[in-house]
Amino acid sequence: MLIETEATPNPATLKFLPGRTVMDAGTRDFATPEEAEASPLAEALFDLGDVTGVFFGRDFISVTAAPGVEWTGLKPDVLGILLDHFSAGMPLFRPGTAAGFSVPGEESFTDDPEDADIVAQIKELIETRVRPAVANDGGDIVYRGFDKGKVYLQMQGACSGCPSSTATLKNGIEQLLKYYVPEVTEVRAV
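Given the sequence above, the corresponding structure tokens read:
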């Protein structure tokens, strides 16, 4: 099995492509070792000690190294864990039970029903134009709300904490949304 790697705009994050589907639907972001307990793979990556983030995309895994950690030393360990996991056909997630289950709080806004057409346009643009580009960089973007001209988005994976994410939001996504949806006045990260 060959696992390819790609650099991302975030120098702390590498994108690993195992050549197969990772997530059948959606994405999953693990920002802490506690969150990673839901996945044997994410937990093994955090157990390396030099990993501060793991993100599962459709056909990739993004791994974020701790500040000061060089990828030259960490990359072989990450590749070893990924090879072992996918070669053994291990499950991506542990079977769940309702005991102790909790969903982390995420900042969301309740959209005004009068803005339904605007919100639909925003979501369509994010889904068709923004998410594919962000996924190419090893991350994801999630719509969180629209309120009085402001669009609230959450960056995940390689995009979370990336030095260029603010520029991506302001110069790329904000300009795109303003062009196609004149009601949009600003885009903010949450």
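The longest strand covers residues 139-147. Try to locate this feature in the token string yourself.
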